[in-house]
User: What shape does this take?
Amino acid sequence: MARKKDLSKIHRLYDAALQLVQEHGFHSLTMAQVAKQAGIATGSIYTYFQGKEEMINALYLHLKLEKMQAMLSVYQPEESFLVNFRQLWLKYFLLSYQEPDKMHFIEQYTYSPLLSPQTRQEADRLLTPLINLLESAKQEQLLKDIPATIMIQHVIGGTLEVVKYFLNHEITPQKNDIESCFEITWSSIKK
Amino acid sequence: MARKKDLSKIHRLYDAALQLVQEHGFHSLTMAQVAKQAGIATGSIYTYFQGKEEMINALYLHLKLEKMQAMLSVYQPEESFLVNFRQLWLKYFLLSYQEPDKMHFIEQYTYSPLLSPQTRQEADRLLTPLINLLESAKQEQLLKDIPATIMIQHVIGGTLEVVKYFLNHEITPQKNDIESCFEITWSSIKK
Amino acid sequence: MARKKDLSKIHRLYDAALQLVQEHGFHSLTMAQVAKQAGIATGSIYTYFQGKEEMINALYLHLKLEKMQAMLSVYQPEESFLVNFRQLWLKYFLLSYQEPDKMHFIEQYTYSPLLSPQTRQEADRLLTPLINLLESAKQEQLLKDIPATIMIQHVIGGTLEVVKYFLNHEITPQKNDIESCFEITWSSIKK
Amino acid sequence: MARKKDLSKIHRLYDAALQLVQEHGFHSLTMAQVAKQAGIATGSIYTYFQGKEEMINALYLHLKLEKMQAMLSVYQPEESFLVNFRQLWLKYFLLSYQEPDKMHFIEQYTYSPLLSPQTRQEADRLLTPLINLLESAKQEQLLKDIPATIMIQHVIGGTLEVVKYFLNHEITPQKNDIESCFEITWSSIKK
DNA sequence: CATGAATGAGTCTTCATTCAT
DNA sequence: TATGAATGAAGACTCATTCAT
Assistant: This one.
């Protein structure tokens, strides 16, 4: 996607794009503004990306990857599945809540025709570790006997919708709110 | 004296907008194309809506209302909560799956800055019957002791994400897939 | 120009047009607004005028005629030329100052290509009585031996410019201001 | 690095706008046409001006300044007031007559709501040298004891109206016509 | 390789005029 | 004759992309 040279500039462009989306919404994500915010000349964006579409795709994948890595970073192999699932889920919940721009960006483009099939495929692939984790748990009879992908989608969708509800209504979720949400989530998949 | 405002045109415009979103994505939702698809002159749209933004808001609310009414139409007061919940959920699942344009339209704009606060508020209000239903069930000790709104958001989000997964991967959900999804959903909220 | 029927409606349209020009400037002189302000249906304007251009031309001529008649109404044949000139000039000055909309309307369109040659010609013809008056005075050796038309144009232009200056700078002209202006004017043409 | 802003384009735009006003009247002063006439892309105008309104304001001020400078260029400090006044006036008369587009442009917009208060203010300021000149002459008892601004407005208005009369009736003013006009003008202000 | 001026197709919206009722 | 909904040709302005420097 993005050429390797000057990775810092690419990140500056990513940050600029997110910042702008936060401040003015998606409609003002113009190349000129992104460039300006990133302290780069308009034309220079095209050194790093073929065009706007490619930039969006790259940013999308970047955010997905970043989030997944952050989640997986809390994984502790020596702990039980439940402990790990709780930790991973909590990380996901908090990340989504604390970086709403990134979450909205992902949400906004996940089902947009701007995303290329290839991007979609790569994004899917990022879920593999999670699927493997669930599959193991299924083998251990800890989870319902339902395709792991369906479970994951349900968990993600349900959790995000609740996060968005909190954000949209400007509610700061308390410990017990988060606990409630986890309870719902865990009940939904546990055997 | 003069021609009366032909309110059916509003629905023609709605249909046209949805059709276009399905065929070419959201970026081609131009007023000119919507008008053309609806068999109406460009300028005539402005007889029925103040502008693009108002049209989007109106369509959004229309779709939300339509969906909610379709759901509630299957409600049978004499039946148990579980039976009704299953029916309502199934209707929601199938509607989303069978009319993906409408679902995507709603999803796409739910968190867009184009939606006015007023539209958002009215959309919220549409959930009231469902919330009441859940609250009653909570009183009967059928559901977890968790705020009804959180449960609803989780149910909706989880279900939609699974539907979108099916659509995105061009999977036709079989009876047992739907059953699995319901199982997840029901487990998530039942006591 | 305007068909005879329902002269009151024509005047309502004239008034509406002037009112709108005063309130929102020339750019918002739309047929729809004029009609609304006049309490008439948009389409009905075309019963009275062939189109916008004709309406403007008619209004222009109407205003010119009205102003000239108001001026001439103060003419007193038994009085001297100077007395009459002063009276006529004063009327012109005050009319322009007290009905700035009408003055601006005339000014705005006098050299606009919207005015038809015919309108221009008829407007010229309205000056005849004044020209005759000046010509007589020239014969009596009261005025410079310069073409009357040139003198009239100079008088009108000079006076209007001063009026516009007062209006533009929100100055209420005092007796002596008006006297000064008349002094300038009279010196300019008297022998 | 990149192309530098080609400031000559601003003048090409000015010329194009004037040309169009001359050829087709003010209503065809569309940005697209101005750009085309100037040999520039439509969008490029917006590199030099924020919008149509700003362009008009800038052109207006440019024309006013240009005219004033041309006038003042004939001023000869060593000559008497009358000689200088005659020269300045003549320059004004001829400039107006020889460049009717520019004169009409100025006239057309002087009382238009398109002009910003700031533009109006700056235009006013351009008159200062003339006012000073008249004030000195008043001190020398050469002119009537009347506010200089009133005298200037009267002179300008009267003169322009005569010029417009010549142009409108396609009369080529002869030496004696011009002399007559000056005579009127000078009589109007001299003591 | 960086820059940002230049491009022009495309966008929303307006409005004089027409025409069905 | 009166009405005002319908029309669709402009109009001002935007913005992804190109390209001269």
